Amino acid sequence: MRVGVLTGGGDCPGLNAVIRAIVRKGTQEYDNEFIGFRDGWRGPLEGAVRPLDIPSVRGILPRGGTILGSSRTNPFKVDDGVRRVKETLAEFEVDALVAIGGEDTLGVAAKLWAEHDVRCVGVPKTIDNDLNATDYTFGFDTAVNIATEAIDRLHTTAESHMRVLVVEVMGRHAGWIALHAGLAGGANVILIPEQRFDVDQVCEWVRTRFRTHYAPIVVVAEGAMPKEGELIVKEDELDAFGHVRLSGVGDWLAKEIQKRTGKEARTSVLGHIQRGGTPSAFDRWLATRFGLHAIEAVNEGDFGQMVALRGTDIVRVPLSEATAKLKTVDPKLYAEASVFFG
Amino acid sequence: MRVGVLTGGGDCPGLNAVIRAIVRKGTQEYDNEFIGFRDGWRGPLEGAVRPLDIPSVRGILPRGGTILGSSRTNPFKVDDGVRRVKETLAEFEVDALVAIGGEDTLGVAAKLWAEHDVRCVGVPKTIDNDLNATDYTFGFDTAVNIATEAIDRLHTTAESHMRVLVVEVMGRHAGWIALHAGLAGGANVILIPEQRFDVDQVCEWVRTRFRTHYAPIVVVAEGAMPKEGELIVKEDELDAFGHVRLSGVGDWLAKEIQKRTGKEARTSVLGHIQRGGTPSAFDRWLATRFGLHAIEAVNEGDFGQMVALRGTDIVRVPLSEATAKLKTVDPKLYAEASVFFG
Amino acid sequence: MRVGVLTGGGDCPGLNAVIRAIVRKGTQEYDNEFIGFRDGWRGPLEGAVRPLDIPSVRGILPRGGTILGSSRTNPFKVDDGVRRVKETLAEFEVDALVAIGGEDTLGVAAKLWAEHDVRCVGVPKTIDNDLNATDYTFGFDTAVNIATEAIDRLHTTAESHMRVLVVEVMGRHAGWIALHAGLAGGANVILIPEQRFDVDQVCEWVRTRFRTHYAPIVVVAEGAMPKEGELIVKEDELDAFGHVRLSGVGDWLAKEIQKRTGKEARTSVLGHIQRGGTPSAFDRWLATRFGLHAIEAVNEGDFGQMVALRGTDIVRVPLSEATAKLKTVDPKLYAEASVFFG
Amino acid sequence: MRVGVLTGGGDCPGLNAVIRAIVRKGTQEYDNEFIGFRDGWRGPLEGAVRPLDIPSVRGILPRGGTILGSSRTNPFKVDDGVRRVKETLAEFEVDALVAIGGEDTLGVAAKLWAEHDVRCVGVPKTIDNDLNATDYTFGFDTAVNIATEAIDRLHTTAESHMRVLVVEVMGRHAGWIALHAGLAGGANVILIPEQRFDVDQVCEWVRTRFRTHYAPIVVVAEGAMPKEGELIVKEDELDAFGHVRLSGVGDWLAKEIQKRTGKEARTSVLGHIQRGGTPSAFDRWLATRFGLHAIEAVNEGDFGQMVALRGTDIVRVPLSEATAKLKTVDPKLYAEASVFFG
Questions:
Q1: Is C275 annotated as contributing to ligand binding?
Q2: Same structural domain for residues C178 and C285?
Q3: A208 touches chain B (CB under 8 A)
Q4: Which domain holds residue C123?
Q5: In which region does residue A341 sit, left (phi positive, over 0), alpha (psi from -120 to 50) or beta (all else)?
Q6: Catalytic residues of B
Q7: What is the pTM of this model?
């Protein structure tokens, strides 16, 4: 059996660990051959390939990024895309595909399998942990560790210097990184996209904290929004790519807190630092097991499935189900954390 | 309600996070008062206490160790122990106890509740992750991260210098740390207590690895034992405390590999480094949630229970059940990992 | 002898290590007594003190921040300030002062000694490493390590995802952090305050880098300025504290690069993360030795001096000299690094 | 000009950084060509080479180990060795050699230049920092950071669990790592090879420490020896390679402390973990600058020289001088640190 592998979407620590596990187990236990497609769905679309065998995956386990490259190319949005993908698969005699990616990448896999008989197995990937079908996605634990370590560093300043310290972390639609890192880091305020925040309430928590002679640390997800409907970013401040990061909520909030409380505020914006570098042990474990189970599914002919974590088990769920709904932060969990606010 | 808190057994990152969560939520949401018992069950036994309120738990979240101290004191092994414990609780007007500890500490709590009506709630703690009733215990993820980072460091030497590198990690009865860190670190051999190892097989893997021009890394749990029944430690090499660490399996194995393969071998013995220092984000999250749910159980009067992790939920299980059986590594999981051996 | 100790200015990892070394050696070898002044020169000015003895410095070595607190209070800018300082010193029977701080804090010490006979010894502190009289200041190595680790994490993204990654690091007047972290992190462009940059040249390096199929990483000091004299920050964007951070050069540059090259750019702004947390081993070594030598100078009656590092030796230099000139990046060093640009 | 590069001796973080800097600057500024010799002096001896150009050094800066491999081969100890080296150099038209290594590797270079006109420039490398001609060698700061982090982790256990914690670090002939990491880590006892230790004195410090209700941490260099002349290792316990590590001083000392004080003791033996993994920022900076200045010396025809650090400057010193004398810990420095003992 000849298996194609591709990785799509944003960077996420653990991609290489998945690839390595697939190739090791596939080669040794099932005698599979592999083809690496470059840059996500661009690979099958344009016939961009690279060799993929055991020597080529040696040493990649602890490395962030992906040796296959990535892109956001979607064959369904390209003229004749599906036909071209199928031609490439035929040309390289690819029997099945493992697609590693987030909602978009797996959505393509789901549709290719459901509507075009392309034999696909999916491996979920999102640093934001917002996929409904799995307890956790790899990359998330690494991001949370990085953000937590950043918050830790701010604490010593908060103990001795009276400043408001704002940390902006990733999470455009779901606040998982903010919630976990904020709780693990002992933040005094955690703001997530799921719940619009009230700047005056934030300022109240800030003032409460100062009364303990210890400065406040505010963790804010990049997608968090103020209640009052104030526009953080005007239309014309969006860049060509529609991203707002360039004048983000962290800076805006720091300015507002300064203005309203009269206390100096400082911002750290972690940005892509959360997406790169070596994966945490948990993420390597999860990514490796995802890879082992994905290639097992391929060799059992169980297509249209995605691997997922349930408790300590790796299970399979239909790709269609997996990409159906965003997993946002449960209000009960957020309420549980709020005992530490202020 | 006045609640006593104690921590027993070996060190484990996350103990302070549990204590802090209990005190924060108990004080703020239930108006509980707290008493800290010193050094595990020695506290209630001898009336050794310390104040425990919100100011006293400030800043302890990221700190390893336990502000309450610890010991292996068991009131059931002390003359009149139970009566003395009950007297202390009466003296300090303690309505309920939260016991944070491993099999021994929780075993005492289970028996005190079942047989002596002492109102206890348990929080499981073992760095070895060998408690049956919970998916994970806090401290484990930190230990695995530390061991993985150590293995990572050995890889660069393995790439450029032809030496066998042996790492001895914790795990006297269960191989969880060795398995997770070995898999996450890309070890070439992983040896666990659950399965006696064959030194010749290990040497064969070592030789295989050298043929890839890359030196082997061998991860061995401190409790792993060779098949051939060779005594690693003679009776008289046991120290006064019955511990064998002082001439452990790592050094023994390195010597054997040198002797049998003629290749230079080096050992690293991580020891207590795996037990200390700041907890990982995952462990802080888990420990904090354990604390929040334990004090909730106390205030709901649900005694004789232990908090546990199931998937992403915190649940309650009877203390008696929790301490009944050691959770060892499933042979299937070990087999899954063996694709990376050699 | 009774010695007062104070810490002034911004946060800097290693302050506690200095305090601990002073107290340990002073108490044990010279039988000194100590008084901790709170919040820099505010302590002597307002008589704000705290006890300072061996138990109170236990465990603080690895902790960032300062147990004495800090401020930017300057007694020379306060009515009757010098007299009030001298009264406090008389009241608490303080024989000598150790002032730990940057240009401002040490400038006060220099003047108090030179003009008012207040017996002072200085310990230099600046995360920016821009003090002329010493090879290095503590805190700098920690900041460089943090920034380097951040750049490391971006590399894996740069290898697999075609984005321009901009990192803004500290350094308002001197580019030492940017230069060292940029070189250590393998940045493709390093921009420092000492040399105005040409955005078109930066874009040229960015394009060159993309041709190697590897995305560029741009390290920019917060005080770096474009050549063309474009105002990055308009007057009215300065906050009440005169700081420009809230819409800094990193974001500005990322926007310009996007506009001019058409490539997506992302920014990370490390901010105060560089100032906090546990000091690196080098900084603990340096801070500890500074403390040991400062208290030695006090007990030898060698006032008006500052400790400094020369090679591997701790020496003394006059306070007046030390604070006279900013140490900026030597153009030759910057040129040496430029072999890695593009 | 065609330049050969080789790395010899034990592993040391920063080797790749040196290689990269040499190749980048040599290629870009001097139009040099490069040849990589494999495995130290085995390369020139046996004609074992690999290509070495800018693409081949891309991405290696943060990686431990050496892409050129290493060995302890000495052409002067091999029949006809020098003639064979010269033949290889002639065959590959190598005009000059950069040898990166410790005493042995550089000793060969010194002799080849002095006695056989082989044009060599040296770059000093020793994790132990025991080279006399330079303030620091790269790799040392990394090793100290790793050992310090390990000690940090033990502190939380020392705060809450009453055990003696012994850490064995590298340093067979010089105690630099033990001294720096012990001081930076706040160890209570530091034992170095330069000064035989008195076990009873160590036990006295251990007892003193316990009286502060805080357990002692003992840092011992692998080459440290007890005063009483007790043989730690009997002749027949030396392995085939003459190494004693396999039953080292750390375990021996822990046993003795247990026996004499009745307190439980635990050992961590860091071993090769100190030699591998990514270099610290300082070591990358130093290694990079060493590389830049070495290739400059080559192109200026200044042979028989070694680059060295003096303060913040890179200077050149004769190879003969550099390898003449071991730099051991100055008794004054050790005395300075002893204020923290006990």
A1: yes
A2: no
A3: no
A4: 2-138+279-322
A5: beta
A6: 128
A7: 0.95
